[in-house]
Amino acid sequence: QSVLTQPPSVSGAPGQRVTISCTGSSSNIGANYDVHWYQQLPGAAPKVLIYGDTNRLSGVPDRFSGSRSGTSASLAITGLQAEDEADYYCQSYDNSLTDWVFGGGTKLTVL
Amino acid sequence: QVQLQQSGPGLVKPSQTLSLTCTISGDSVSSNSAAWTWIRQSPSRGLEWLGRTYYRSEWYDNYGVSVKSRITIKADTSKNQFSLDLISVTPEDTAVYYCGREVTDAYYFDSWGQGTLVTVSS
User: Fold this and answer.
1) For residue A99, which residues of chain B lie inside 8 Å, CB to CB?
2) How far are the Cα atoms of A14, B14, B53, B76 from residue B59, in angstroms, in the given order?
3) What is residue B77's three-state secondary structure?
4) How far apart are CA A35 and CA B41, in angstroms?
5) What's the whole-number mean pLDDT along residues B38-57?
6) Across A57-69, average pLDDT
7) Under DSSP, is residue B8 helix (H, G, I), strand (E, B) or coil?
8) B54 to chain A: which residues are within 8 Å by CB?
9) Residue A1 has pLDDT above 90, yes or no
10) A29-57 b/e (C-beta count within 10 Å ≥ 16 → b)
11) Are A81 and A17 in contact (CB under 8 A)?
């Protein structure tokens, strides 16, 4: 059971927009700790896409964007492409556990 | 461009010690702006942060609550490496283990090793 909750799967057709939610609590996202987003392609290590809630890492297309509100955060992907098919994870810090924590991951399928 | 290269065995017997090493190129293990981290991933536990070591005039380490009593992470400045030792392993410790670099003051992981599947089995 992950500390941050994500939907197990989302899907969309090429060109569409999808969002992936990440729900936390008052000891992590709600305590104003930054949320970061990673993309993991099959057989590869996770790669950071978004850091500090909304900042895209250099080289990440502007089709990817992050936002947060209260105890939740979201990753939005517009103009879906086949290459976006991957697992996506959110990550933050939890001051109750004093650990860095991850979401359970969301599998994005491009139809 | 930071690169992290992991090494270590892929099979460990129950009750023994899991040991992995991560060799850094493109940065220094003694960097004042990074922390060196181990994370593991398994179908049952997902991504799990295990701990980190970092240098700020002296060496510090922090460990995850789930492994705190069993883990040691150490740096070797002569080889620009850091290592993971996890004692008394059980099949629950079977996972892909990643080393990584944490961007301190930003608290995310911007470089990862290639991953090592470690199976705990007799």
Assistant:
1) 49, 64-65
2) 49, 31, 7, 11
3) coil
4) 19
5) 96
6) 96
7) coil
8) none
9) no
10) beeebbbbbbbbeeeebbbbbbbebebbe
11) no
Task: Tell me the pLDDT tens digit for each residue of B21-35.
Answer: 999 999 999 999 999
- What is the pLDDT of chain B when averaged over all its residues? 96
Rounding to the nearest 10 degrees, give the CA dihedral for residues A83, A89, A92, A96.
180
B100 within 8 A of B34, measured Cβ to Cβ: no
Q: Which residues pair with B103 in a beta bridge?
A: B34, B108
Of A48, A93, A98, the CB nearest to B110: A48
What gap in Å lies between CA A94 and CA A13, rounded to an integer? 35
**Which of B54, B99, B104, B108 best probes binding to A when mutated, by most A CB atoms within 10 angstroms?**
B108
Residues near B43 by Cβ (< 8 Å), separated by ≥ 6?
A: none
Q: The tokens of A1 are what? A: 């059971």
**d(C-alpha A89, C-alpha A106), whole Å:** 7
At residue B39, what is the residue type?
I
Sequence-distant (6+) residues with CB within 8 A of B94 are: B42, B118, B119, B120, B121
A49 DSSP assignment: E
Interchain proximity B46–A104, CB inside 8 Å: yes
Q: What is the mean pLDDT of residues A85-92?
A: 98
Chain A contact present for B104, CB below 8 A: no
Tens of pLDDT, residue by residue over A6-17, are 999 999 999 999
Both tokens of A21, joined, read 């939610």
Q: In angstroms, rounded to a whole number, what is the distance separating the alpha carbons of residues B50 and A101? A: 10
